[in-house]
Specification:
About 20% of the residues are buried. It contains 5 helices and 2 strands, in the order E-H-H-H-H-E-H. About 50% of the residues lie in helices and about 5% in strands.
Length: about 120
């Protein structure tokens, strides 16, 4: 799908840029692995809060899943990854992924890479 850039809001967030462009095209396990190994918990938490703000702004008739604003303790990183993917699954089910703003990355290096998980090394 080609997005019109004339009236579209651009939002700087590398994590959300990555997820918008890969969700539904790459298996969830690979997405989780890439986020888990590339991002820290604070970065994921910030992305999650920004995404929840945009989801709530869509004013959907269906209530979004409950996702805690703050995660603490052991397993925080995994919980933040799971929260983000839960929100993306909800948006996909509601068929409103295209209603999100255009998320962009400051540079290609600020986004996770799936090459290790998609390529010939995936068997290892």
């Amino acid at each position: 799908m080609i997005r019109k850039m004339v009236h579209e809001q651009l939002v700087l967030n590398s994590v959300l840029c990555f997820l918008v462009n890969k969700f539904g095209k790459v298996d969830v396990k690979s997405l989780k692995t890439a986020l888990f190994h590339f991002c820290d918990a604070d970065t994921l938490s910030s992305a999650k809060l920004q995404l929840m703000e945009h989801v709530d702004g869509l004013k959907l008739t269906s209530k979004r899943p409950h996702v805690p604003h703050r995660r603490d303790g052991e397993g925080r990183l995994q919980n933040e990854v799971d929260d983000l993917l839960l929100l993306f699954a909800y948006l996909d089910e509601q068929k409103v992924l295209d209603k999100l703003p255009q998320f962009v990355a400051a540079s290609p290096d600020s986004r996770p890479s799936l090459r290790l998980y998609e390529g010939d090394l995936s068997g290892f």
